[in-house]
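Structure ticket #2291
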Amino acid sequence: MKINFVEISVVKPDAAGVFLVGEDKKLSAVAASVDKQAGGALTRAMLGKFSGKRGQVVHIIPPSGVKAGHIFLVDAGEAKTLDAEAFEKIGGAIVPHLNAARVKSATLVLDHAKGKISAALAAARIAHGVNLRAYYFGKYHTTKPADELPTFAVFSVALTGAKTAAKDYEPLEKLADGIFFTRDLVTEPANIIYPESLAAKAKELKKLGVEVEVLGEAEMMKLGFGALLGVGQGSIRESQLVILRWNGGKKGDAPLAFVGKGVTFDTGGISIKPAAGMEEMKWDMGGAGVVIGLMKALAGRKAKVNVVGVAGLVENMPGGNAQRPGDVVTSYSGQTIEVLNTDAEGRLVLADALWYTQKHLKPKFIVDLATLTGAIIVSLGTSRAGLFSNNDKLADQLFKTGQKTGEEVWRMPLADAYDKLINSDIADMQNTGKDREAGSITAAQFLQRFVNNTPWVHLDIAGVAWSKKDTDIVPKGGTGWGVRLLNELVAEYYES
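Resolution: structure written out below.
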C-alpha cells in the first residue's frame, strides 16, 4: 500500500474521494462543495443511511460533472471518543468498500477532523488503519479470478499540515512492517516455514542492524537443552534457538527480553491431534513470529533501548525417534520433567528458552508469548490474550497498553495451589496438570519455574494469533497480534 500526505490546497481529483461526517451530520467545506457540484447527491445519500455507528460507509456514484468517479462518506461518530485507535478503525473500515468498488486509488480529505488528537496525527492514524486492513497474502494464488483480487493500492490524505502528518506516520509505517512480517510468517505453510527456514528469515533483520545468533542442535545438546530438543526429536527438521539483539540504548543497560514459542508445525507428536483442523497448527509458531516482527519494528524505527528477542524453534512430529508419553527429560535448568502428554510441547520449548534468557542475557524483564493452550480460548475467547505474571508493575503496564492499542490482555491468577498440580511422582514436575483442571494456569505455573526472580509476564495468545474473520484493521488469517502491544509498551515506558 502506497501512502501519501498532501496539502488540501494542492489536492488533485482522484478515482475516489473520501469524506468524514461528524456526529452533527454536516458536510465539511470541501465535501459541501462536491455536494453542490453533484446536485445534493451527498446530502441525499446521508438521509436515513447513517445510524450513528462509527465506521459506517455510504458509497455514492456521483452524476457527471464531478471529477471523482466514486464518493465515500464515512461516519466518524462522536468527536469526544475519537482517539488514535478510533481513527485507525475508521481507516480500516474504508478498505473493503474501496476494493468492492474496484478502486485503485483514493484520497481522503481531512478538513473536518474533530477529535481527541491533532489533525496531523489523525491523518497518520487513519492511514495506518488503511495500511493494516489492506494487507493481503496472495502469493500462492495463481488462478484466482481478477475480480476477486484486491485493487486498492494507493491512499492519500489531504489536510493542512501534510508534512507533520507524514512525520507522524513514519514510526507507524515501521510498525506495520513488523506486523506484516509476523503475519507473513504465521500464514506461510509448514513446508515453507520450518525451524531452519524461520531462522533464516530472522537473519534478514541483520540489514536493519539487528545482531542475529542461531544455535543448532549440536550447540543446544552441549548446553543441555533436554526439554526443547525432546520436542523436536521426532522431526527430520533440526531444532533451532534464535537470539536477536537490538542495541539502541545505552551501552551496559540491561535489555528488555521477549521470548517466543516457535513450534512451526504441531501434530501433537505421539499424543497426536485429531485430523480435523490440524492444518491450522502451522501457526503454532505465532509467539516466535511476534518476537521476530517486533524486533523488525523496533529496529526499523531505531528504538532507543536495548532489546533481545529469543525464539525456540521446533517441529513436533510423530516418528520412530519421537518423544513418548511418560519420558523424563532434563531441562537446561537441571530440573527434570515427566512428559505426560507430547501435545503439551510449547512449555517444554519455552522452559529452555526462558532459562537461557535469564541466565545469559540478564534482562530487565522477560515477556514470553505462546499459542500455548486451548484452555485460554475457553476462558477468554478470541478478543483478549491471557496474562500471567510475577510482577504487578509490569502486568499493569501491559494491561494499560492493551487498552490503548486495542490488543487487550486479561490477568489470570498464579498460586501455590495451582503450582502443586504439576508436581510429578517421579520427576521435579510434569508437563500437564491433573484432570484437565486450570489448563492455561498450570501451563503458566510450569513456565514460572524457569524464570527465577526475573520480572516476567507470560502471554497466552492462542485465541488471538489467528482470526477466522475480518476485523476492523485485521483481515482474516494471521493477525500479528502482540507487535503493536509490545512496541507501545517499549515506547511508552522504557525508551530513553
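Closing remark: The chain is about 35% helix and 20% strand.
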